[in-house]
From TrEMBL:
Protein name: Major facilitator superfamily (MFS) profile domain-containing protein
Gene3D superfamilies cross-referenced by the UniProt entry: MFS general substrate transporter like domains (1.20.1250.20)
Gene Ontology, cellular component aspect: chloroplast; plastid membrane
Any one Gene Ontology molecular-function term assigned to this protein's record: phosphate transmembrane transporter activity
Residues annotated as domain Major facilitator superfamily (MFS) profile: 98-502
CDD domains: MFS_SLC17A9_like (cd17380)
UniProt keyword annotation of Transmembrane present: yes
Bilayer topology annotation: Multi-pass membrane protein
Length: 505
C-alpha cells in the first residue's frame, strides 16, 4: 500500500510541460479508460493538456503529409532531377547536333568551291585566259577530288568519321586561302592548289556518310541526309551571293581569304562536340544512346573491305552509273552557270552571281521537302526500294525536262525559272541515290559512297572540261543536250537495277 502511494505521488508530481510521449495510445481501449478514471483531477487535466498538444502535433504532421506529392510524382521528380540540371541547349538531341555540324561543313565546302565560278571571270580577264583554259582550271579541282573518294571512304570506315571530316575541312580551307598566291605565281601553281583543295573536299562525303550511318536511325535517314546536302546548296547560295560584293569592293583575292578562314571556326565546334559514334560520346544521354543503338544499321567497325563481293552486286553498279549521270549535269551547272548568265543572258558580274543563287536556294528547299516525303512514305509502309526509285526518277526526269526548255525560251526570267526548276527537281536525288548507300551496305557506306562518287567526280572532270571545249566550238544547246541524254540513261539503269534492301552485312 505504501509502495502504491509512493508511485501515485511521483506520477502526480511530474512536470506539466514534460515532452509528449512518442508512443501512441488507443483511446478507445477499455484498460485506458479504467486507468484514467482512477487518477486525481489535477493529473487528469495535465494529461488532457498533453494529449491536446499531441493531437495538435499529429494534425500538423498529417497536414504536412497531405501537402507532399503523391508517390508517382515523387518518382517522376526523382527521374527528372538529373535532366533538369542539364542546360536546354545540351538537351537538344546529340544526333542532330552531329547532323547540323555536318550541314555546316558542307556549307563551307560549297562556299569554297563555288567562289571560283565567280572569281574566274575577273581572273580570266586579267590573265587573258581562253574558255579552254578556264575549263582546265575549273576541272583541276576534280583531279584531287577524284583521288580521295575511295581512300576517304576506307579511311572513314576504319579510323572514324570525326577525324577524317575534320582533316578535310582544315585541308581545303588552307588550299582556298592559298589560291590567290598560286594564281599570281602562274597557271601551273594554280592548277596544283586547286587539285589540293579537291583532295580535302574529296574525303568529306565519305566521312559524313560514315558518321551519319552510326548516329542517325533508319527512320530519320532521308531527312538527315537531305539537311546535310542542303548545306551544299546553301553554300552555293552564300558563295554566289557574297562573292560579287567582295570582288567589287576588295578585289577577287578577298573571296578566297575570307571564305577559307571560316574553316577554323567550324573546327573548334567540331572538336568539342563531335564523336565518330554514340559509343564514344561520354556526354550522350542514356535514352538517346539506347534509341540510336537500337535503330541504327551500322554498329560494328570495319576491319577489311570485301571488294569482290561489293563489285559483284548489280545495285552497286546502279549506284555508280546513276551517280555519274547525275553529277554530269549538276557539276556543269555548278561551275558554268554564272558564265551562262553572263554570256547568254547578258548579265553583268554582280547580276549573274545573284541570279545564280536562285536555283541553289530552290535545291536547298526541295531537298528537305523531298526528305520529308521519303521518310513519311517509309513510315506509312511503302517499301524503301519503291521510295528510292520514285525520288531518283524525279531527280533525273525533272532536270531533263526543264533543260530541254532552255532552248525555247527568250526572256532571262524564263531561263532563270527553268534553271531553278531543273535544280529543284534534281535535289530529290538526296532521297534517292544519295540515301541508298546506307540502305544496301550500312557498314561500308563510306566506302560505297567513295566508290560511286568517284564516278560522279569523273563526270565533273570530263563534263566541266568538255563544256569548255563545246562552247569554244559549239553552243549551249549542245551542252544541255548531252546532260539530258545522260539523265535519261540514268533513269533506265536506276529503275532496272537499284534496290532499297540491304545486300551487304
Amino acid at each position: 500500500m505504501n509502495a502504491a502511494r509512493a508511485l501515485l505521488i511521483s506520477f502526480c508530481s511530474a512536470p506539466k510541460d514534460s515532452p509528449p510521449r512518442t508512443t501512441t495510445t488507443n483511446l478507445s481501449s477499455k484498460s485506458h479508460l479504467q486507468f484514467h478514471s482512477s487518477r486525481p483531477c489535477a493529473n487528469f487535466n495535465a494529461s488532457w493538456r498533453r494529449r491536446g498538444r499531441n493531437s495538435l502535433m499529429i494534425r500538423r504532421i498529417r497536414d504536412v503529409k497531405s501537402e507532399s506529392p503523391p508517390a508517382s510524382v515523387k518518382v517522376l521528380l526523382a527521374t527528372t532531377d538529373d535532366d533538369a540540371m542539364v542546360p536546354w541547349w545540351e538537351q537538344f538531341p546529340k544526333r542532330w547536333v552531329i547532323v547540323v555540324l555536318c550541314f555546316s561543313a558542307f556549307l563551307l565546302c560549297n562556299m569554297d568551291r563555288v567562289n571560283m565560278s565567280i572569281a574566274i571571270l575577273p581572273m580570266a580577264s586579267e590573265n587573258h585566259w581562253s574558255p579552254t583554259t578556264v575549263g582546265l582550271i575549273q576541272s583541276s579541282f576534280f583531279w584531287g577530288y577524284l583521288l580521295t573518294q575511295i581512300a576517304g571512304g576506307i579511311w572513314a570506315d576504319t579510323a572514324g568519321g570525326k577525324f577524317v571530316l575534320g582533316f578535310g575541312v582544315v585541308w581545303w580551307s588552307i588550299a582556298t586561302m592559298l589560291t590567290p598566291i598560286a594564281a599570281k605565281l602562274g597557271l601551273p601553281f594554280l592548277l596544283v592548289v586547286r587539285a589540293f583543295m579537291g583532295i580535302g573536299e574529296g574525303v568529306a562525303m565519305p566521312a559524313m556518310n560514315n558518321i551519319l550511318s552510326k548516329w542517325v536511325p533508319v527512320s530519320e535517314r532521308s531527312r538527315s541526309l537531305a539537311l546535310v546536302y542542303s548545306g551544299m546548296y546553301l553554300g552555293s547560295v552564300t558563295g554566289l551571293a557574297f562573292s560579287p560584293m567582295l570582288i567589287h569592293k576588295y578585289g577577287w583575292p578577298s573571296v578566297f581569304y575570307s571564305f577559307g578562314s571560316l574553316g577554323t571556326v567550324w573546327l573548334g565546334f567540331w572538336l568539342n562536340k563531335a564523336h565518330s559514334s554514340p559509343l564514344e560520346d561520354p556526354q550522350l544521354l542514356p535514352a538517346e544512346k539506347k534509341l540510336i543503338l537500337s535503330n541504327c544499321a551500322s554498329k560494328e567497325p570495319v576491319k577489311s573491305i570485301p571488294w569482290k563481293l561489293i563489285l559483284s552486286k548489280p545495285p552497286v553498279w546502279a549506284l555508280i552509273v546513276s551517280h555519274f549521270c547525275h553529277n554530269w549535269g549538276t557539276f556543269i551547272l555548278l561551275t558554268w552557270m554564272p558564265t551562262y548568265y553572263h554570256q547568254v543572258l547578258k548579265m553583268d558580274l554582280t547580276a549573274s552571281g545573284l541570279f545564280s543563287v536562285l536555283p541553289w536556294l530552290t535545291m536547298a528547299l526541295s531537298a528537305n521537302f523531298g526528305g520529308w516525303i521519303a521518310d513519311t512514305l517509309v513510315s506509312k509502309g511503302v517499301s524503301i526500294t519503291m521510295v528510292r526509285k520514285i525520288m531518283q526518277t524525279i531527280g533525273f526526269l525533272g532536270p531533263a525536262f526543264f533543260l530541254t526548255q532552255l532552248s525555247h525560251v527568250n526572256s532571262p526570267a524564263m531561263a532563270i525559272l527553268c534553271m531553278a526548276c531543273s535544280q529543284g527537281t534534281d535535289a530529290f536525288s538526296q532521297s534517292g541515290l544519295y540515301s541508298n548507300h546506307q540502305d544496301i551496305a550500312p557498314r561500308y557506306s563510306g566506302v560505297l559512297l567513295g566508290l560511286s562518287n568517284t564516278a560522279g567526280v569523273l563526270a565533273g572532270v570530263f563534263g566541266t572540261a568538255a563544256t569548255g571545249y563545246i562552247l569554244q566550238h559549239g553552243s549551249w544547246d549542245e551542252v544541255f543536250e548531252v546532260s539530258v541524254g545522260l539523265y535519261l540513261f540514268g533513269t533506265v539503269v536506276w529503275n532496272l537495277f537499284s534496290t532499297g534492301e540491304k545486300i551487304l552485312d
